[in-house]
TrEMBL record:
Protein name as it appears in the record: 5-methylcytosine-specific restriction enzyme MRR
Molecular function GO terms recorded: DNA binding; restriction endodeoxyribonuclease activity
Organism: Granulibacter bethesdensis
UniProt keyword Hydrolase present: yes
PANTHER family: MRR RESTRICTION SYSTEM PROTEIN (PTHR30015), TYPE IV METHYL-DIRECTED RESTRICTION ENZYME ECOKMRR (PTHR30015:SF7)
Gene3D superfamilies noted in UniProt: 3.40.1350.10
InterPro entries assigned to the protein according to its UniProt record, in alphabetical order: Restrct_endonuc-II-like, Restrct_endonuc_IV_Mrr, tRNA_endonuc-like_dom_sf, Type_IV_Methyl-Rstrct_Enzyme
Record's keyword terms, sorted: Hydrolase
Residue intervals of the Restriction endonuclease type IV Mrr domain: 109-229
GO biological process: DNA restriction-modification system
Source taxon at top rank: Bacteria
EC number: 3.1.21.-
Amino acid sequence: MQPCSLGQTYLMKAGLLFSPDRGAFTITPAGRELLATNPPRITSTLLEQYPSFISFITAKVGHNIKQGAAPVLSSPTDAEHQTLEERVEAAHEELMSELRSNLLEHVLNQSPAFFEQLIVDLLVAMGYGGNHEDAAQRLGGTGDGGVDGVINEDQLGLDRLYVQAKRYVANNSVGRPDVQSFVGSLVGRGAQKGVFFTTSSFSTHAIEFVRNLTQRIVLIDGTTLADLMIEHGVGVRVSRTITVKKIDIDFFDPE
């Protein structure tokens, strides 16, 4: 069997690999059954026989559409009809999708205190909270009424941002009651702005609830959290930079 080029994430999402520890992988019974059939190559099309992989791909394509990106290619046949630049873009999106998934897995494996510090690091990286020391003093400082912390929007503290953070597994979404409690806390403090972070997702009722409020409430789900971490360099580093160059037409046509 040829080595799989799809990466460990696809195999894990299909239930063929299990990661008992960081950097360690164990083949599952389902993986052994697949190996017993001696497939010439493991492709995403082959993995579509596994419901867990279908769920993963469906969620990923939905994220791409939400972000205005093209869906990730699902089979080598599709790739044959793409230009080289389109294949590079598709490969980049596949790497980004895998990075998002791995980021959330690492966050969920950490302690609640680590998650709290992660939110501090992210907010500071985004330009809120002044410095790490000031932000850390405010996050987790109230500890009551549905508010985890208060962050300055600017270094002078002229406006404040109220924060709530829930570290939930993917299938445990944040419902309207949690969001409503958070909003109630803001109303009690006369606050107008709040951000609710979670590693999972928000229910439809929770999302609908915040749309017509006088307060400005931003809901950051797990996918958006991972995107913000990547964008602002929190918990990630540059592995490789690839520069793609093309012909400079003006150089060859001075006129």
